[in-house]
Specification:
Radius of gyration: 19 Å
CATH architecture: Alpha-Beta Barrel
Structural class: alpha/beta
CATH topology: TIM Barrel
Number of strands: 11
Helix content: 40-55%
Bound molecules: iron/sulfur cluster
Strand order of the largest sheet: 6-5-4-3-2-1-8-9-10
Largest sheet: 9 strands, mixed
Amino acid sequence: MPFTSIMKLSTYLHFLRHALWMKMDRRHRVPLTMNLHVSGACSNRCLYCVLDNDNSTDLSLDLIKTVLHEAWSMGGRRVNLTGGEPLLRDDLAEIVHYAKDRGFFVSLATCGARAQDQVEALRAVDRVMLSLDGPREIHDELCGPGSFEALQQGIDVFETQGVSYWTTTVLTKLNIPHIDWIVGHARSHDIQANFVLLLMQREPVPLRLPSAGEVAEILPDDGEIRAAVKQLMQLKRAGAPIGSSMPYLKQLLEWPDYSDATSPKLSRHYRCVAHQATCELLSDGMLYSCVSVPGCSAGVSVSEHGFAKAFTRLPEIENCRSCAISCQLESNLIFSLNTKTIWNWMRLIGK
Ligand code: SF4
Ligand code: SF4
C-alpha cells in the first residue's frame, strides 16, 4: 500500500483507534500530534509575523528530549518542529534523530535559510514544509530582502539531498494574484502546495499574532479571500498539486468572518479535538492545547511540571469550537474521522 511508505500502517491504526475512542468519550486524551516550537528566533522578517527576535528563547535540548520521550509514552506519534526557524539550531540533527528513533512522524516548518548546514537533520525529517509566498519580488516583499534567494538555495539542497518537501503559502493581498504561479511551481517540482489564511490578533492569544492594523497593507478583503479559496478548489478539482484538503477549503469558503478566525459555534462537520489530541509547546516552555484561542492564556509550564503532568493539567477550551486555522482545522477534520480529509492526506503523504 503506497500510503504506508512514510507513515507506518500501525500509526494510522493508532490514530484511528484513539479518534474513535475520543468520539465516544470526551475525557479520553492523548497527545497524538504536537507542534514543538524548538526555536524562538528566525532569519526572515515576514510582514505578517510578530516574532520578537531580540528577546527570543529556545527550548533546551534536554527538555525537548524529555518532552518527546514522555509524549511518545503517552501515545504521541506525530511532531511538527517549528519556531521561529528550526534550522537555526545547531543541535537540530540530534533532535530529529531522537524523535525518529522513538518512532515519531516528524515534519518541520522552515523558510529554507541555512539548509546547507542542516542536511543531516533535513534528510531524516519525513516532510519539510517550506514557506513560499510567491515569485521572487513578492516573496522578498513579504518575507524580507534576500529571503527568496535563501529559499531557492534551500530548494536546491532539498532536491540534491533527497529531502522530502512541500510548500506553504500565507494568502495575502500581494500573492493572491500569483496563485497560479505558486501552483505551477509545485507542479514543476513535483510537490504539493498548501495554503493558509493570514491570522490576526483581535484579543491576546498565547501565540502572539499581528493586529489588523499591523498587516493592513497586505490584508486581503473578504471578496479576495473567497475568490482565492474558490480558485484553489477549482484547481484542486482539476488535479492541481494542492495539498490542502477539499473539506478544509470548503470550511474556509463557508467561514462567515475572516477577521475572526475562531468561533464559539459548533461546526456541523467536525468537533474540535484540541483539548484531547493536539498540543503546542512554545519556545518559552509553556504548553497549550491550542495557541490561537482568545482568552486561552492558561498554559502550563513543562519545565516546572514535566510534559506528562502539564498535558493532563491543560484546561478544557470552553470559548472556541470551530476555526479557520489551517493545521488545527485539518487536524480537527482528521480526528473527527472526515473520510475525505483522511484520504487526502494518506494519499499525498505516501507519494
Ligand atoms: S518564516 Fe515564519 S517564523 Fe520566520 S519571520 Fe516568517 S512567519 Fe515568522
Ligand atoms: S476550534 Fe480551532 S482555534 Fe478553536 S480551540 Fe479548536 S483547534 Fe483551537
